[in-house]
């Protein structure tokens, strides 16, 4: 087996014209680009009122998830508030329409908003998403399914602090809902859970049921009471996404996702999350806020037309973890098109602490994958990991330390040399190349990608074990 190892000066990557290349400088923001450039956000925060809390918000209208991997290009109206200590910060995003690659699913204009605030003795962060119209099902060519229409769906999540301590609040509402069943459907023959869902609605005809916002809480209550998604024969299923929060002496978080609709009619199965808001805050944050964490995989194909990743991304809380290591595990994840990639044994670890007396914040993040398999290339990589450590003294540049590890690489069962940090190895038969340890370092810290795999003929670039360790003063 022939393979070639070569070092790239300065860690730069000159990918062939057919390859796409994720930029090493991407901010680690849960798989999506920052709502505003980091430098712009920093300048805006300088003029804002600073608190001793760290805030974060993440709100979006539509998300498509398959086997723990997101289709990132379908995540619309994504308003993301990166970790900040500033109050009065607002991020708002809108989308005109979203059709998640399925003619049976139509989502109209969506608006997402996150904001940090201070009102009297209360500090908090609030996230809200509103979707104008959602239509699931109907008639597409020869196929006719039940039709579900929801108007004015709104999701709100809020985390706050008062002199009495931390708290949280979550809510859902909608303007109207309509479910049109197939002709000749006998309501008495429907699943009992679906009959419960229809009970708060007005029966307009034998097969059409409608309700206004007065029925909204009853409908959401039915969805929250059942243990399994409610089946809509001929269409799929509907379920409440989630609605929960927690608060303790040091932080609060709130998250709500209005609906999860699994459309099984037609040629493909599609699971879509609608109306999601997640916010959190905590303290104390006397030095700054951490923007640190990891994601197991970033995947681009077809010249950037498709983006996948965010394998249950985990981030260090903005204020840190009070010096405790937090560990999260994902047993397996996969991305099946256009080139299948299978991940086993994903582990995220984060740790951060702030010492007010010393005016120092420090911590680290680590991302690890036990095994990565790309069957079409007969490529298997074991024990991929990256780690980013950071330390900042107030007013000083963040010092960083990064490291990566790779266990073994095989193609067709035969060993391929593991590249040293910064080196590139050509894969056999000219199928592609792999590069280890791509690093982006700046004033606020570093980001590292453990391994980048480029497959030439498929025009696919796969980044594995991406970890960021950054601290921002504002």
Automatic annotation (TrEMBL):
<feature type="signal peptide">
    <location>
        <begin position="1"/>
        <end position="35"/>
    </location>
</feature>
<protein>
    <submittedName>
        <fullName>Uncharacterized protein</fullName>
    </submittedName>
</protein>
<dbReference type="InterPro" id="IPR006311">
    <property type="entry name" value="TAT_signal"/>
</dbReference>
<keyword id="KW-0732">Signal</keyword>
């Amino acid at each position: 087996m022939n393979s070639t190892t070569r070092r790239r000066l300065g860690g730069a990557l000159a990918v062939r014209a057919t390859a796409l290349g994720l930029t090493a400088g991407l901010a680690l923001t849960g798989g999506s680009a920052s709502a505003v450039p980091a430098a712009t956000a920093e300048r805006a925060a300088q003029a804002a009122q600073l608190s001793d809390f760290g805030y974060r918000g993440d709100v979006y209208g539509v998300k498509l998830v398959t086997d723990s991997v997101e289709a990132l290009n379908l995540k619309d109206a994504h308003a993301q508030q990166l970790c900040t200590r500033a109050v009065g910060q607002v991020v708002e995003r809108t989308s005109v329409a979203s059709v998640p690659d399925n003619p049976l699913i139509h989502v109209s204009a969506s608006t997402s908003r996150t904001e940090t605030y201070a009102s009297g003795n209360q500090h908090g962060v609030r996230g809200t998403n509103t979707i104008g119209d959602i239509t699931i099902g109907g008639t597409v060519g020869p196929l006719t399914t039940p039709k579900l229409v929801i108007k004015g769906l709104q999701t709100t999540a809020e985390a706050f602090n008062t002199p009495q301590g931390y708290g949280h609040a979550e809510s859902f509402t909608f303007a109207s809902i309509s479910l049109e069943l197939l002709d000749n459907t006998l309501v008495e023959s429907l699943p009992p859970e679906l009959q419960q869902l229809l009970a708060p609605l007005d029966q307009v005809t034998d097969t059409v049921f409608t309700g206004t916002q007065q029925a909204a809480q009853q409908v959401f209550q039915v969805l929250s009471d059942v243990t399994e998604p409610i089946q809509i024969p001929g269409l799929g299923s509907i379920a409440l996404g989630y609605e929960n929060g927690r608060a303790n002496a040091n932080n609060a978080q709130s998250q709500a996702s209005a609906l999860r609709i699994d459309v099984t009619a037609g040629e493909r199965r599609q699971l879509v999350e609608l109306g999601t808001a997640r916010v959190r805050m905590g303290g104390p944050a006397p030095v700054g806020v951490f923007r640190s964490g990891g994601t197991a995989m970033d995947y681009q194909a077809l010249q950037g037309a498709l983006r996948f990743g965010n394998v249950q991304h985990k981030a260090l809380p903005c204020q840190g973890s009070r010096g405790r290591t937090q560990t999260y595990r994902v047993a397996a994840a996969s991305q099946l098109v256009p080139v299948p990639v299978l991940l086993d044994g994903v582990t995220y670890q984060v740790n951060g602490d702030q010492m007010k007396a010393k005016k120092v914040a420090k911590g680290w993040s680590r991302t690890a994958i036990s095994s990565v398999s790309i069957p079409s290339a007969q490529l298997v990589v074991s024990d991929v990991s990256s780690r980013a450590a950071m330390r900042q003294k107030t007013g000083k540049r963040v010092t960083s330390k990064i490291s990566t590890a790779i266990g073994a690489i095989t193609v067709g069962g035969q060993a391929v040399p593991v590249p040293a940090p910064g080196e590139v190895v050509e894969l056999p038969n000219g199928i592609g190349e792999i590069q280890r340890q791509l690093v982006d370092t700046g004033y606020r810290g570093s980001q590292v990608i453990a391994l980048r795999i480029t497959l030439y003929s498929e025009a696919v670039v796969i980044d594995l074990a991406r970890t960021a360790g950054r601290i921002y003063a504002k």
